[in-house]
Amino acid sequence: MSSQTLSAGPAAETENGQEAVVRLTDVRRHFGDTPAIDGVSLTVRKGEILGLIGRSGAGKSTLIRCLNGLERPDSGSIEIEGREITGLSEPELQPLRRRIGMIFQHFNLLSAKTVEENVALPLKIEGWSREKRLARAAELLELVGLTGKAKSYPAALSGGQKQRVGIARALAAGPALLLSDEATSALDPETTASILELLKDINARLGLTILLITHEMEVIRTIADRVAVIDAGLIVEEGPVWSVFADPQTATTQNLLAGVRPGLPQTVAARLVRGPGGTKAGETGAGETILGVDLSGPEAGTLLSGLSVELSGGFRLIHGGVDDIQGQPVARFFIGVPSADGAAAQAIAYLERRGAKVEVFGHVAGHA
Ligand SMILES: Nc1ncnc2c1ncn2[C@@H]1O[C@H](COP(=O)(O)OP(=O)(O)OP(=O)(O)O)[C@@H](O)[C@H]1O
């Protein structure tokens, strides 16, 4: 399939040299006292995968509904490919809505129609001939790896296959944006990985812009270029995925990351005593000071080996290591350093010299 057939259509607006497919500026939508969206500004740049993550009730669905014109914001501006949509009438909204292809958690396929008819449906609405529609559907089914399933009905497909049909259908009319609304939330981990791989592949091959709504950081980590974190109707943090993973700035982001970032093991945390330890008479040599260490960038890969050279008395790696996020080494680990003889202070000084962020959790008696 040529990228031409799935091109983004009219040129997106350019501002500061950056092309925006979607731009929200200070968008608000309150329901009575509930500020579902409370002043959101967000840009989806052409060709990127932007992940929008938030807990249940954070405002994701309201934001999607504002984007596709199903909900009108109380105030603020929403531009799609440079066109303001907030004041448009329903008939005026229709063609703009078709610039956004959507995939859903429960696929939303028509069970009485075959796979190819489902995929071709948006083209029927556009007035394409049956012959052209089916040719296009065949092309899209090949793109999503479902050649041979054209005549099947959705009931005969697995969840992953259904979502592939959903993706093909969403791409049929050559949208400017693919909006993925929890599209992998109903799938098992293996199928999730294959669907995310497909989306990443389509993004890379066709330059398709994707806005990915999820509550799972693992999904963001796997395919997004940038991430925006929404909480109580506000974007509380935004940035490249590796940088947000390496140094989350808000408690909301830290909580969302808890499952996918190394943390201090409970067994160690339960035995912690405040302070570095080994400072009182009789305590010397009796325990370990527990440090948490964060560093991202090229230096991260050699931090542990450097520390073992620096500390003649050695140290113990309790948990964590170096991860690769978007090609960036991101180190996060927890170590136990002998509390005696100033070793902890020496370790902290060395790690900070290398640019790492060091947190002293406390000390434990004996080995953690
Ligand atoms: N039509 C409505 N009337 C009243 N309150 C609403 C309405 N729609 C949403 N809300 C409220 O606005 C807030 C944001 O809801 P929203 O559905 O946008 O969150 P969400 O992030 O999509 O959550 P979830 O992941 O559970 O779908 C919630 O407090 C919700 O109860």
UniProtKB/TrEMBL annotation:
GO terms for biological process: amino acid transport. One of its GO terms (cellular component) is plasma membrane. It comes from the Bacteria. The keyword Cell membrane applies. Residues 22-257 form the ABC transporter domain. The keyword Nucleotide-binding applies. Transmembrane segments: none annotated. Part of the ABC transporter FtsEX involved in cellular division. Important for assembly or stability of the septal ring. Belongs to the ABC transporter superfamily. This is Cell division ATP-binding protein FtsE.
